[in-house]
Design brief:
By secondary structure, the protein is mostly helical. Helix content is 57%, strand content 0%. The protein is globular and about 25 Å long.
C-alpha cells in the first residue's frame, strides 16, 4: 500500500473519530494534537482504528512519539 493510500485511509479514520475534523486541511506535516485537534483519548481511538483497519498490532509502538500525520503514516508502513 502506498503512502498516499495510507494517508487517505487515515484521514477517513480521523473523520470517523471526530466528524468536525476538516480532512481537506490535513497534510502529512499536520500536528495531531495542535492542528488536527486530537485529544489523548482520541489518539487511543486512532490507534485502535488503525489496528482494525490495517490488521496490524501497535501494542509495542510508542504512540507518544507520533507528532504529525506523516509520523502515523510511517508507523503504519513499518508494520505492514
Amino acid at each position: 500500500m502506498q503512502s498516499m493510500d495510507i494517508e487517505a485511509k487515515l484521514k477517513e479514520l480521523l473523520y470517523e473519530i471526530d466528524d468536525e475534523i476538516d480532512v481537506d486541511e490535513i497534510m502529512a506535516e499536520s500536528k495531531l494534537k495542535e492542528d488536527v485537534g486530537l485529544s489523548s483519548v482520541a489518539m487511543i481511538y486512532m490507534a485502535v482504528s488503525i489496528e482494525n483497519e490495517f490488521g496490524i498490532d501497535l501494542s509495542d509502538a510508542n504512540m507518544n512519539d507520533l507528532v504529525t500525520v506523516g509520523d502515523v503514516v510511517e508507523l503504519i508502513e513499518k508494520y505492514l
